[in-house]
Records
---
Amino acid sequence: MPLSQSVHEQMSQRLQQAREDLLGAVRARTDADEGDAPSIAPGAHTVPGDDRPTAEMISHDEAHLAEHDTNTLHEIDAALGKLANGGAGICESCGCEIPDERLLATPTVRFCIACQDRIEKESGIGRGPTM
Ligand SMILES: [Zn+2]
């Protein structure tokens, strides 16, 4: 077993906390949106045919944030799943054991430092020629 009981428990707690924080933040934002909606007198400034993009841009931003939240939530759930199924602490790329400090610093981490480095460099477009 690569993970000690205490590391396992700490990761589990951190992930569940992160999950609650994230869901709480999303919920708070959704509530705020719903609260705001009626005050923007629907139709008051709407001119038929005048498709001003302002409102569209705002909602696009919010959709983007929500997508980021969804990704984070998936990472947390995946990490929790691995904790439950025994795959936690193993690099998904090379299969080596990820150090406890790294797991505790970032419980959603999926790769060892060497692989993370390589993957970031491979996906790091815009830093000059790749070869
Ligand atoms: Zn690795």
---
Amino acid sequence: MALYRKYRPATFAEVVGQEQVTRPLSTALDAGRINHAYLFSGPRGCGKTSSARIMARSLNCEQGPTSTPCGVCDSCVSLAPGGPGNLDVTELDAASHNGVDDMRDLRDRAYFAPAESRYRIFIIDEAHMISNAGFNALLKVVEEPPEHVIFIFATTELEKMLPTIRSRTHNYPFRLLTPSAMKGLLQRTVAAEGATVEDSVYPMVISAGGGSPRDTLSILDQLLAGAGPDGLTYDLARPLLGITDISVIDDAVAALAAGDKAAFFQLIDAVVESGEEPRRFATDLLDRLRDLLVLQAVPDAVAAGLVAVPEDRAEAMTNEAAAFSNAQLAHLASALNEELPKLRGASSPRLLLEIMGARLLSAPAPAAAPGPSGATAGVHRLPI
Ligand SMILES: Nc1ncnc2c1ncn2[C@@H]1O[C@H](COP(=O)(O)OP(=O)(O)OP(=O)(O)O)[C@@H](O)[C@H]1O
Ligand SMILES: [Mg+2]
Ligand SMILES: [Zn+2]
């Protein structure tokens, strides 16, 4: 079974990185302040459907409503991840069931008392797909629901939600995970799987997953599937993720710091010859410059989770950052950022990479003098 399905959270405490939502919902559950219509919005794969199911489980636990469902009553067992479900909790995918007839059917079912639980709960996924006519059929029951009915709408597209629904629900916004929250989730999953993963693999997987827990767990899943007896190593993961080798970026940064044009052009040659994506190289270099900028401003950025690299890289990167003045790094990053879009679909990426290199290296490269005067000295020598 796919990792992201195997490890679906079963309680709000297990939902990672959505405290802005799970904390107030838990408080409301424990205080018995129950609303009759909720709206969970946010990016794909961040825990909306999982949280809607957790909400249903928390509301209908025999010991509940509670933020800590007992896990052993009939309702908790049937609503656990992978459980059979029960008659009182209905999930409807509005992407495929969004018409008037579907909504009428749902409305009619809402007026029946629950079969065995406290509440009859309707989870309506992709709720922005409900048609206007469909929602009109539902409007009255959402507006004045019977005491025992709760609606939980979920959507990736809050702007497309009918205002009539939005205004009648309490909205809880989900968001993409921060790298440090994601690392926690990955480490927990790796431990549960009894797998071994090199620390340097995490930042690559986190960056490839783009902040979505589901996408990130899928990537981890694929990589773990191919891991040998040594576990998941950097050397195994990097080519699969198509990420430029850290040492290549290290060399590029060193060449930039030294203003060494020959070294930089040789590096470009090696990148192109190795068949790596030139755009990828430029993107990864830009990411590194960004990390160095942050490290210059916040010396403990790695520990603070602002820069997602393994702890053992922190010192090397701090040294890299110290080789530039602040103005120089800012100039390099913004020049690279401007060049980057030109690489998309270019017929001669090599040429463009070389022009990019020439532009980056056209600035004189003063080594950072210690102290703030050194940083300012750099400013005057830059042709901006
Ligand atoms: N915040 C989270 N904490 C832990 N795991 C998560 C979280 N968000 C997502 N996941 C993982 O991703 C899987 C999919 O999450 P879920 O279906 O809840 O996302 P969703 O927001 O409803 O996505 P979609 O918008 O595509 O419907 C879960 O089974 C779980 O493994
Ligand atoms: Mg969903
Ligand atoms: Zn229970």
---
Amino acid sequence: MAYALVALDTDRIKSYVFGTDRLREIRGASSILDRLNREIMEEIARDLDPRAQVVYANGGSGLFLLAEDKAEEFVRRVQAKYSEETRGGATVTGAVQRLPAGLAERDLWKAHLQEQLALLLYKLRRAKECPPATVARPSHPLFQLCDSCGLEYAAGQSPWREPREEHQRYCAICLQKRSEDAQIKKSIEKMAARPQEVRPGSGEDAKQAVLWANLINRLHRIAPDYFLKDGQPIVPKRPRDIDTLRSVASASQGSIRDYLGLIYADGNGMGGKIEKCLTLGEIKKFAKSIDDAIYEALATAVARHLSPVHVSGLLAEEDEENGQTEQGGQPKKDSYFFPFDVLLLGGDDLMLLTSGDRALQVALEVARVFRSEAREQQGTLSVGVVFAPLKYPFGLMRSLAENALRFAKKQAHASKWHSTGDDDDTRLNFLVVAGAATHEFDYLYQTVYSRREGNSEFCATLRPYRLPVLEALLEAIRQAKRLGFPRSKLHQLREAVLKMNRTSTVLAALAALQGCHDREREFLLRWLYDFNQRYLLQNGQPAEEAGTIQGFPRVIFPWSCLQAPGQSGREIYLTPLLDLVELYDFVAVQEGERESED
Ligand SMILES: [Zn+2]
């Protein structure tokens, strides 16, 4: 029997998932796609051909091996199922490549198939570039548009009670997303109540909420006491919407209560790495390792930094939705929430929303664990973290996070002083939204954080960070907090750095230091010198070997001055001080510790 390879790829995932700004619809859309991708594709394949095999199915794509005469039908059925489950909101593209007829079944996983794989990829790309013609729909000025996406015509109201939103009308696509979110909410609660029994891929709830089954299963393995409080089992709930997440954030212990943090992580150069695999066996192993690594990274970060949070005052609303309001005497176990929400997870992508004071620790942990779990595949992540006030629109926050992530990827190999000699291209970039006029990071970088003046180049940020350097920066912040470093001085230093030149920056920074206590001044200067020695010096290698930057940096407080390579005589002035000030409020002295405001 001849086999064919079938590649499937979901089209424009983000425009479907983030078609609206509402958490419920985002999560519903994400969950529908996840189930179609991880469960239903395989079900359809096995239904058509019991001997069909999955090479991989995650991150919105799939690669399947099945009987040649069933391949085209498989693509059509998957496409029909996508259309049905998303009410036409999402589509999937497929391509088929037959394998050599002489290929024996036992050799399928070991044979070198680079030609067939390259052809398949080409066919998939070509199919993606020629989407089917769209059918124009009837239009009328009196048709009402969907209250959520505003793009499609409204089809009806929510069939279940939604406090304060009864008057809203939604289109079929948005309604489907909302009903999905309501369904998986129940599945997640059932699974969170018995974490020890959750097995991904088995049981109704695990098949419904694919992502959470996997997460809860891993959480229970990594931290068996995650679902316990003082020895008693608790059943944490998923935040109902962004407002619930805001209450969870403001009930937290950290110093900054009114910020949310959005983390967006993405694998570095994964497409290129998977294209280097020669056999189906290698591809299967690679895809599974990367998918496992991102799940493990998420579960570890959740276990360590995102314990369930007790919130009061939200119960009435939550129960009203379930139609079971009780007066008084709420059982205590009902008032725990996960202090985060996963909006997207798959392949090598992760988007997670949490409170501002937790985001940085979580992002660091995710990047660190992913790197160690995917070491064999040389997998690394780039991460963008955006801190924004609670009321900041989610859509803007997401586009800032995407931009910060792109900057991290682009800059990983560009920055001269970032060269490390090792192959770890993990980078973390962050952006703090302050005031209404915050711009995308690459724009800020060019206009605020860097400046050229004659033969001198000033750079007020070391972003994007390598993990050890960021950890050193966070440790410095913790020390400064223990010392009680005055905030007013930090802001003075920030203003000084932003003057972006030699004379007035140095004068203003020294003036700020004048007002400090001796121990504060000593701490800051010692840290800055130490930081230079350690991280701005090509990892301590002699200048000749490092090649790019010559000589030792001179410290002209608050700048470190490096010579650019060659005979140009160009000087680069850098400082980590501004980054320290910007992150100051987002780092707790110690996990869960609270400090006084000054
Ligand atoms: Zn809609």
---
Amino acid sequence: MRAWTVASQDDDLRLSEVPEPSLQGGGVVVEVLAAHLPAYTKAVVTGGRGGLLTPLILGPSCIGRVTDVAPDVFHVAPGDVVLDTALLNAGDGDEILVGWVGLGGSGGSERTDRMREVWRDGAFAEKALCAKETMVKLPDAENYPDPARLAFLPWLCVAAAGLRTAGPLAGRDVAVIGATGQMGGAAVMLALAEGAATVTAVGRNKVALDRLAELGPRVRTHQLTGDRTTDATAIGPVDIALDTLGATPTADATMAAYDSLRVRGTLVLVGGVRQDLTIPYSDFMHRRLTLRGSWMSDDETVTRVWNLVRSGVLDLSAVELLKVGFDDPESALDLAERTSGLSFVALVP
Ligand SMILES: NC(=O)c1ccc[n+]([C@@H]2O[C@H](COP(=O)([O-])OP(=O)(O)OC[C@H]3O[C@@H](n4cnc5c(N)ncnc54)[C@H](OP(=O)(O)O)[C@@H]3O)[C@@H](O)[C@H]2O)c1
């Protein structure tokens, strides 16, 4: 079958002919219907996001149709359409993303090394062998008109899990910092679908902000100035701020979000910022704030987000889907890197 592989740490992403996966205990084989190509995939391949265990088939998640299951798998069956979340959790912070970079709270251990040896290959392929723990059934998804669009679900689920740590969204004012990225765009859509009173979309890219504004009258936008005080004043006051920023040279935009919170507000961090935050103890205490981190998603959140989509409450037609095939991985990575906001690239075998 055809797959996108990385042979070694210093290799590029390549189109390869590889053997079809064979079933192993605890495994599920899926026919890949579509897989999201994150905007920063090139940085992952070139080592900018931590070590990839090579050689491997790349790909953190997909929408797939189950073709075979091991005898010890009961929650999905051949024919089911599923989301592959890529998240394999052994407990105590030992978590891996199959086919990708990223380790859970333990930061890696002898156990995560063994997990990554057994469950190494990801979803950028015609077929994928997945650990059963990464499979969430999407009931009736076989009737969804454009399954490739569902490849955006993983980002919606990560955003939903982050927002959820701050409690119910209905009637509350939410800000998304980095709304001009794909995670941020997903978060804006999710917050609207869950009844936020207002959603303030914050980012640099004016074109992406304008597209977000078209989602409806509850969306406000703010183009980042880079000045923390000015940005905080324009963003707030909000009850919840979700930070979905990529790697930024300073923590100013994140701290502007902190400053913009109302009393009892919550700042949730899900982005890729690699900066330390200086939290003023007294201010944090007197304003009774909450600071939360959130990583990936959980099965219940996947089901909840899928129900929003299948019921039409969350309409994925607002997202521009750019389909690519296997032939030219380099151009696909370039396209993904240029794609922001309410657009995303999906590999459709
Ligand atoms: N917590 C989790 O479970 C989880 C899961 C998946 C991904 N992530 C993280 O989420 C982050 C965002 O993912 P994505 O797919 O949305 O990436 P993306 O599409 O590349 O978005 C990056 C965002 O960061 C902003 N940004 C980048 N550099 C900036 C700078 N110097 N100053 C201000 N803003 C800057 C961009 O703003 P403009 O477009 O306006 O320039 C954009 O809004 C990634 O870094 C990833 O590590 C976390």
